[in-house]
Specification:
Largest sheet: 6 strands, antiparallel
Structural class: alpha+beta
Shape: elongated
Number of strands: 8
Strand content: 15-25%
Bound molecules: zinc ion
Radius of gyration: 18 Å
Helix content: 10-25%
Order of helices and strands: HEEEEEEHHEEH
Number of helices: 4
Distance between the termini: 52 Å
Length: 208
């Protein structure tokens, strides 16, 4: 049993459902918690699905965004309290401290308390290297950038774009490009990032 499953069972009691793909708990009739256990890349951490928080409550920083799906729960893993098409968050939990914060988040959610902020933690030294890191480009330097692109965001963009330049398909000299430039208010969101090669990035820079 994985560490995440162990901790969730300790805090939420016995799972309500176990399959080859998921272990699910029903923390409250309308609050399902689903731990995905069939993911191929365990280095990415444990994937825990929870309902989207109520309006005005913070979304954990470790939540992955899915452009075009508006955070809808994957139809693959329906569960009591987290049904098909239910607005949901996929949390990528990679460190022990993120796991603790996630548990506090779920318990506060269950008890209708104000939700704590779940911060994205730097990877613990003993945790495995994230998937594809060997061929992930360094983040492009820009003097105007105030915050680095979170690694979870980099991984999602890299996977969405298939590790290729979105303009010319090359795998050479790639960098993360802000579609709306940072200095024009573009953010570090998955939606605003794309993979570009050095050449296409330069020609885009010239157009701007
Ligand atoms: Zn290119």
């Amino acid at each position: 049993m994985s560490r995440a499953a162990e901790v969730l069972t300790k805090e939420l009691g016995s799972p309500s459902r176990e399959t080859v793909k998921v272990i699910a708990w029903n923390a409250r009739p309308d609050l399902g918690v689903v731990l995905q256990i069939d993911q191929p890349n365990r280095e990415q951490g444990a994937f825990i699905w929870v309902p989207y928080p109520p309006d005005g409550q913070p979304v954990p920083e470790i939540a992955l965004e899915y452009p075009g799906e508006s955070g809808r729960h994957s139809n693959t893993y329906p569960s009591p309290g987290l049904g098909r098409g239910f607005p949901a968050l996929k949390l990528a939990v990679k460190t022990e401290s993120e796991l603790e914060d996630t548990i506090s988040f779920i318990k506060a959610f269950r008890d209708s308390m104000p939700l704590p902020v779940v911060k994205l933690q730097p990877a613990e030294p003993q945790s495995p290297v994230p998937v594809d890191v060997s061929c992930m480009p360094p983040v492009k330097e820009q003097p105007t950038r105030r915050e680095a692109i979170p690694r979870a965001v980099q991984r999602e963009v890299w996977q969405r774009d298939g590790g290729r330049c979105v303009e010319c398909d090359t795998r050479e000299k790639l960098c993360f490009d802000h579609i709306v430039p940072f200095f024009r208010g573009g953010s570090n969101s998955i939606r605003n990032l794309q993979l570009l090669c050095e050449r296409c990035n330069l020609s885009k820079g010239n157009r701007i």
